[in-house]
Amino acid sequence: MSTPSAPDTTEFERMLRCESYHAGDPYIRKIADEQAVILDKINAEPDVARRSALLKNFFKVEGDEAEKKKARVVIVPPFFCEYVSALRELCDGTNVVVTLQGFNITIGGDLFIHKGCTILDVGPGA
């Protein structure tokens, strides 16, 4: 039985450096597809408190654990976002694990965003 090879992360690394990249790259599509599943769960959650907990796991939240727990994060669905993930590990069937650190979105305490928001999180903002 052969060992699966590590995925080619070249385009993903280019994306993180804000260089030109191919958005249809299989590795980037895999990450985007996994994020879409999480966003579907967030958007489908009718309970505001449970949706807030999902959002706090989705974004990077500043502060110590007590501050993170206390933060009120409300986004009225539908909410759209690319690629972001806070402290989650994506495993692609090989021994390679990529830990995504919220890419470029950090929440500093309480947050309220009304419906229809789209956040594009490909590169760091200026």
Automatic annotation (TrEMBL):
Coiled-coil region(s): none
Domain Maltose/galactoside acetyltransferase: 12-64
Gene3D superfamilies per record: Hexapeptide repeat proteins
InterPro entries: Hexapeptide_acetyltransf (IPR051159), Mac_dom (IPR024688)
Top-level division of the source organism's lineage: Eukaryota
UniProtKB keywords: Transferase
Molecular function GO terms recorded: acetyltransferase activity; O-acyltransferase activity
Family: Belongs to the transferase hexapeptide repeat family.
Protein name: Maltose/galactoside acetyltransferase domain-containing protein
